[in-house]
Amino acid sequence: MKRKIYNKLLNWKETQQGQTAILVDGARRVGKSYIVEEFARKEYKSYILIDFSNEDKQLKMLFEEHLSNLDTFFHMLSILKDVKLYPRESVIVFDEVQQYPPARAAIKHLVKDGRFDYIETGSLVSINRNVKNIVIPSEEERIDMHPMDFEEFLWAMGNDGLMDYIRDCFSAHTPMGEALHRKAMELFRQYMIVGGMPQAVEIYAQTKDFDKVDRIKRNILNIYRADISKYAAGNEQKVTRVFDTIPSQLQRHEKRFRVSDLEKGARTRTYANAFFWLQESRVINTCFAATEPNVGLNLSRDDAKRKIYMADTGLLIAMAFDEKDIQQGQLYKKLMFDKLEINRGMLVENIVAQMLRTAGNRLYFYSNASHNKDDKMEIDFLVRKPSVTSRHNISPIEVKSSARYTLTSLDKYRHKYSEYLATPYVIHSKDYIEKDGITYIPLYMTPLL
Questions:
Q1: How many C-beta neighbours within 10 Å does residue 448 have?
Q2: CA-to-CA distance for 421 and 60, rounded, in angstroms?
Q3: Which of 87, 109, 153, 352 could staple 191 via S-S, CB 3.0–4.6 A?
Q4: CB–CB of 396/405 below 8 Å?
Q5: Prediction pTM value
Q6: Residues 6+ apart with CB under 8 A from 118
Q7: Which phi-psi region, left, alpha or beta, contains residue 365 (left: φ > 0; alpha: ψ -120 to 50)?
């Protein structure tokens, strides 16, 4: 399973030369352990993998008793793991490092020694929880790992060239053409339905069996629910309530998360810890309201208004259709061929949020519920262009799931904030086109924004 994060690890190895350790952070089951071990195996002469979720006491005692003498520490570690270590040619992997905080605290001492490289993996919510009585090493870099993006999905499906052509068309401002657009949309629908969790993608690539894919996704959701019970200390009920209502909240035309739906008299501040926990666990993507399209969208962020998306759309589908009598394979096939009467806007907007976030964008939207019809509008997403100028920095994005649609809000927004705006985009199921100052792009071009 080819992943883009591999190149980020390679860049870290080549530029840092052992001056820092790197922590790969991400949700459970996004493939952290797999890609890190693959990297260690291919890029080093030898490696030692320490999985703190099941290591015995003898190994953990090394950190407790021998860190003051690293010669002894490395000698005993090499014997216990039956692996020879080579200075500047070996890497030591601390997998699930949150399970044993003393190992993370030791990073400072180990990096200063300089003999070997160090890679850590973990889930942020449990990493942040297990820091009592340890000093967080300043020598630790962090990189986020997300579910597989559309290009990684294409690679898994054996298609290495399509995204390059999509990228070329986007750069050249030209349509894909009917045949290739149809092919790209077919593969994109598969990606949206299967999702980006590596285990689900792998089984789909091998079997094309939606029932097997669904079983894997439900197992992952069960792991997430178990994590809530285990780690969301004191907030289990609130976190579970937010998590379980995500599909119904997104199903509404107005997708802004309504805390009042969770329980009578609920307020945003009473659920602040629950929102934070889910965000830190990387299970969700949060989209905040921005009151105006300032170059620094965070400057106008309104924390009281937010939209919550699942970090993986495939998991959202498994959550949305969880009745035991539904034949999941048939349901997935109907979704695939657009033969199911559902609100597709929920799925399409979620996958756009997922792709924008994976591409490195923070998520913002604009909403004005004014009684003045000229001011009442909602824009699905706001994205800042990479280069910063004195004006025209923010691109408003409207997401359309059906073939027929209007652009009332986008037209109002362009009129009201014309001096702030870069290229306005409409993301839809049709091919690339530019018309009346708006760029219309197919869904599969979203990662290029």
A1: 14
A2: 55
A3: 153
A4: no
A5: 0.92
A6: 21, 22, 91, 92, 93, 94, 107, 110, 111
A7: beta
By the 8 A CB rule, do 157 and 184 touch?
A: no
CB neighbours (10 Å) of residue 258?
13
State the Cα–Cα distance between residues 229 and 430, nearest whole angstrom: 43
Is a pLDDT exceeding 70 seen at residue 43?
yes
- List of residues 6+ apart from 169 with CB closer than 8 A: 175, 176, 432, 445
Closest CA to 449 of 433, 429, 430, 426: 426
SS3 for the chain is CCCCHHHHHHHHHHHHCCCCEEEEEECCCCCHHHHHHHHHHHHCCEEEEEECCCCCHHHHHHHHHCCCCHHHHHHHHHHHHCCCCCCCCEEEEEECHHHCHHHHHCHHHHHHHCCCEEEEEECHHHHHHCCCCCCCCCCEEEEEECCCCHHHHHHHCCCCCHHHHHHHHHHHCCCCCHHHHHHHHHHHHHHHHHCCCHHHHHHHHHHCCHHHHHHHHHHHHHHHHHHHHHHCCCCHHHHHHHHHCHHHHHHCCCCCCCHHHCCCCCCHHHHHHHHHHHHHCCCEEEEEEECCCCCCHHHHEEEEEEEEEECCHHHHHHHHCCCCCCCHHHHHHHHHCCCCCCCHHHHHHHHHHHHHHHCCCCCEEEEECCCCCCCCEEEEEEEECCCCCCCCCEEEEEECCCCCCCCHHHHHHHHHCCCCECCCEEEECCCCEEECCEEEEEHHHHHHC
Both tokens of 363, joined, read 């998520």
Distance CA 443, CA 188 (A): 8
Measured torsion, CA atoms of residues 29, 231, 130, 118, in degrees rounded to the nearest 10: 0
Q: What digits encode the pLDDT tens for the residues 362-382? A: 999 999 988 888 889 999 999
pLDDT tens-digit readout, 102-126 = 898 899 999 999 999 999 998 755 4
**Residues linked to residue 141 through DSSP beta bridges, in sequence order:** 22
Place of tokens 């216990």: 80
What is the number of other CB atoms lying within 10 angstroms of the CB of residue 316?
A: 24
- Report angle CA 31, 33, 35 to the nearest 5 degrees: 65
Q: How confident is the model at residue 337 (pLDDT cuts 50, 70, 90)?
A: low
